Amino acid sequence: MTIWDGVQRGYIPGAALRIHESLRLHTGTADVDPVTFEVIRYALMNINLEHGQTIQRLAVSPVTMITRDFQPSIITESGDMVFLGPYLQYFSNAQALTIKWILENRSENPGIEPGDMFVSNDPYVGTPHQPDTIVAAPVFVGDELFCWVANVMHQSDVGGSVMGSFCVDATDIFTDPPAFPPFKLVSRGEVRRDLEEMFLRQSRVPTDVHMDLRAAVSANRVATGRIVALVDRYGADAVKSVMNRVLDAGERTVAERLAKIPDGRWSHRLYAEAAHTGDTGIYTYQITVRKRSEHLYVDNAGTDPQTGSINVTYAGFSGAFLAALTASLTADLAGAYGGVYRRVHFEPVPGTLSCADFPAAVSPAGIYTMETLISLSGAVIGKMLACAEPDVAELAIGPAHPVFYGLICGGVHPTGEPFVATNADNMIGSLAASPAGDGIDFGGHFWIPEGTASNIEELELLWPMLVLYRRALRAGAGGAGRFRGGRGFVEAGIPWTVPGMAAAVYTDESFPKAVGPFGGNPGSAGHFRLKHGTDIAGRFAAGEVPQDFDAITGIEAQVEAKGPMLMMGADAAWEWTGANAPGFGDPLTRDPDRVRADVATGVLPADLAERVYGVVPGEDETRALRAELLSARLAGAVAPAAAPATVPEDVPLRPLAGELAVVERDGRPEAFVSVTGRVVLAVAGGNFKDGCAVLERPLHDVAPEFATREGRAGHRTRYREYLCPVTGLRVDSEIVKEGDEALHDIEIDLGEDW
Amino acid sequence: MYYIGVDIGGTFTDCVLVDREGNHRTAKTLSIKDDPVSGVLAGLERLAETVGVDLPTLLQRAERFGHGTTIGTNAVLERSGARVGLVATAGHGDALEMMRGAGRVAGRPIESVFSVHGSRLPAPLIVPGAVVEVHERVDASGKVVVELDLDAAAERIGRMIAEYELDSVAVALLWSFANPAHEKALAQAIPDVFVSSSAEVSPRLGEYERTVATVLNGYVGPACSRYLSDLESRLATPLLVMQSNGGVLPASAATALGTIDSGPAGGLIGVATLAGAYGHDHVVASDMGGTSFDVGLVVDGKPMVAQENVIDQYTYRLPHLDVRSVACGGGSIAWIDEATGGLRVGPASAGSEPGPACYGRGGAEPTVTDADVVLGLLRSEAFLDGRMPLDRDAAVAAVGRLATRLDLTVEETAAGILRINNMRAATVIRQQTLERGHDPRDFALYAYGGAGPVHAFGYAAESGVREVVIPLGDGASTLSAYGIASSDVVLHRELERSLLAPFDGPALATAVAELRDAALADLAATRVAGDAHVEIDALMRYHEQLMHALDIPVSPAADGGTLLADFDKEYVHRYGDAGTSPFQAVEVFALRARVSVVAGIPIARPQQSASTEPAPTDVYWPGHGRTRTDVYRGAPPDMITGPALVELAHTTVAVPPGATLTAGPLGELHLKEFS
């Protein structure tokens, strides 16, 4: 039988860790008054922040020092995470899992001693993908293991078939970058040169990795020293008690909030395209959350079997969900999330894309599957929160981008030095719309709060390229909604001072993946374009910096979703985009004045105000146009099986989100109802979609923004709108693969066995 | 002859006068926000009274007149600045708006960085839409890639000025610091508005921060210029304007951007000046006020300089004195974190309106000042020289509500509030020192600001410092104004230049000479007379460590070997030898010159206000309980041993049991033996 051992299958620690008896753990506690508690808590939080700042200063790869694709944490002696920093949040439990595995598998041989540090990049143990390298340091007080400090850092290149180590063409882990289970890089304070060189040998840019690895070691030493000083002053038992109380407090906080959510079950489904280079398939990820009393149970049933390179292990799946959960439900804990995790119980289906068994390839996960799962988790959590009491419902923050749009180029500097240029300008980001309002333009990503995009001058200093433009995307169909999603960016560049380079990793989606909650439009798709033999040199000479990719002459390459490495000569030019984030609620219900304000500031072209939002200059004309658009929807839709019944005006509705509400009897939900049309859509235990009119179209027909060429995956996806059968307003919508049934995605438990 | 310094703060305008003998006079008046010139003149009038002359005589006798203004800071925070338009390289006009995707969180307190909820981008600094992108391009080497069509660009900029009714234009082109030709040409071609050029304002790598600096300069520039020339026209002496770099410049040469955060810089420079006279070369300067706690360092007699600054979530680079602020002051609110049951203090503040509960202005939440009143460290009848009696009952009630919930006595709770606030303050002090590889125990701590001297014994002990100095004694609350009066003329000039180790060729010496000449030329342009002193630092790191910089002084001979050795030493000092990297080249990425002309004004000797005989009171000293304590009004001439309170005009010095307080020869107070 395959077990969750971190070897054949992603590691899931058992209830009790099997730690060798020779390793003594500090478990003492002490009474700590409320004042001393705060003094120690604040000190611990600041130690972790200083740990992060040290990494940022000493690292050399932009992905670490600017993008902040790293995470320091403080962890108890037995592997429970106490403090996380404001950096990459899906590393939520990566260090904790790895440390628990180290405790179980390394405490006897080679042993865990003062001054040691372990390194691992094994996704089956705990990291999301191989570039994310963990360095974990045990902190001893006397001869007892008191706690751990650890960090994860994305290393620029750790080998594998593709520059930058996002190996989209990998078919299994043997063509992926090597995965090292935890090894003792630092033994009693000494860096082991043999092991260090073994690790660096795998990289195309060993000098960068060497610098960053040493930054990780130095930062751990700084944090260790600070913790030892804190223990010297207040005593190990007091400091440990504070750690435990911080954990307990996180648990209590999430429990109180979960108590304000009815028991129920919520699901969401998200698709990816292309499992590997050359593939045009569509693949399904699904997450279901069941909430019962003050606990959450999370599974990935419905997810396709593992294949190609679009997999993650248990570490990735759980890390993504926890990142999305804490960002919405408990962000006020500011990284003290370990206690929250105790209330989340994963019930993963192994052998799937989101919980793969060895030897599945996982290395591209950092830009694909992890973001897909964060977006998916956010969507599920948003549905759950919509059913909660208002002070918890308002914590919904909308789904993240389903992909991390990026560009990795590689080549050789004019000096002959090789380079791997990881362009993470998508840190500009954009936040999804939420029940509270519009998403924030260029608002970054909630799962990496301090992430920052490079300056263009930094890119051009580090790598031989010239950026023609980096501009804000305009609003449009992508991201439209009652509240619109934040806007992203578009960037174009050319090789500079070199005869050419290669684009190793790029993203060109044939359809947008993340639908807007409760009838909001999907976000926009990310695109990568490439032209060969351009006229840019001539236009430079003529005094022009080309600003319109369409107007650049040359031969446009046909680009695929996870295509092969593309060679680019000196006269090539590329353009790539981030994305506008998903909207919230039906765009036809957006306040016309807000639409006009976007037109006035140039954010939204006037013709799109009309096409997407049904807004024209006059109030009456707008009302008339919107009425026309709504009837057209209903005319094209399939009416529900039963004739619509409505709820009398004097019956109060409890709004959930957008056009969806419930009517209650004796304080319990009785039926789902549409808000404006007051149509009964289903009994509370049923599927509200059953009572909706359903309008289904190919996604690429919904708006020119979603068009794609024939043969690509986007041609086989459909957009399904669930409409109030009386008003035509969207209650919800789904992006589905051809042939996929409607998802029964919101079930409120009525007390029966479910 | 008088040396005068005037510092406008949010509440008070402080005026300081020093004469040739070092006699020191101060005046404190309420600021007049809508008419700051009148506020300054009212303050000067009061200052004139202290030396028994009228205002015109005072102004006639002023040999040097230094001034720090918050006009620029206020214009940004209240968005009342100029109508600014931006000129950018084609394709890059949106950089300011996109803020590198970090605008939502930049500069926000850590407690709120994790939360999307309620976060937002700051309001724009330019008139929305007022951007002209010009076709021109320079590459990373400074080579012109696309020529600028100056006439066409100037015409479009002219149209933008008219269409958006601009009174200020900021020009920030890509790589302009490497080759400023296009930017200079454009700046000269723009007529009739306030023009800021990025290569002049902030000639550093990183177009976003450089653009922010340039736009900010343009945003606050017109109002600053108007105000400063208005004020100067009322004076008999050329006006010297305080800059955030810790120096002053003639009003004609001062930059508007440099006035932002110049007040705290004035405080730190005042400390550095006095520390030289008091005999301290390593000093932590700490200013605790109503809402914030500002910390700066003096190391080897020099105030520390930082590059990056953030105002209202906009990040920019300008060499400025490194004064870091945390929301922990007298108004910080104490509360209970329900989830942990722990007591917390801040970051929310009751500010001055409604203020602490004891102000009796409707504030009900317990603050640090209320805790002071409960403990007896602040006596209700003695606050601000008795001009503002405090409501002790309100303080006891507010702290008492917390005490009940914590199951502690009201005094224990008040002591706990102080302990936590002190620990927050000490954390900033430790971060400032330790991250530079210094041990706080090697520093003296200077405490000023209204809430500094009363809490200094606590946060000094918490941070490991062994001696507290109340600089200027009774004059501590006007220290920034003294710093402004005594500041040297200082200019910084930076040169972005990448040099890889070993620095054995002539490149280093060439760059240093080039920079020295440019800095001296800058100084000559200000027409300030006097001996110029030039110091040059290399900004160094391992190659490609873009987020890292160590400032290493360049020896006069610009010796590359010494420079490299000094870098290695400093790196190991801070990060340990595991971080050093024989496998990556050391790089000088920029050079910074500081050119100065010494002010040379006498060290201030504040008047010793006659001390009264001590009167007894009861104070609850943390760790000691309620103890009979002597209260002095004014600093006693001889050493006293705590417990004691010394009540000065605008603050109280708390001397805990066993500690000693001694007046120094220059009127400063030394607090020792408190830990």
Description:
The complex is a heterodimer of chains A (754) and B (675). With 754 residues, chain A is an alpha+beta fold. Chain A is 27% helix and 22% strand. In chain A, the strands form six sheets. In chain A, strands 1, 2, 3, 4, 5, 6, 7 and 8 form an eight-stranded mixed beta sheet that branches. Chain A is globular, with a radius of gyration of 26 Å. The two termini of chain A are 30 Å apart. Chain B is 32% helix and 28% strand. Chain B has 18 helices and 34 strands. In chain B, the strands form eight sheets. In chain B, strands 13, 14, 15, 18, 21, 22, 30, 33 and 34 form a nine-stranded mixed beta sheet that branches. A seven-stranded mixed beta sheet of chain B has the order 12-11-4-1-2-3-27, sandwiched between helices. Chain B has a four-stranded parallel beta sheet with strand order 6-5-9-10, sandwiched between helices. The longest helix of chain B is centred in the N-terminal third of the chain and has 27 residues, at 207-233. Chains A and B meet through α1, α5, α6, α11 and β15 of A and α4, α5, α9, β20 and α14 of B.
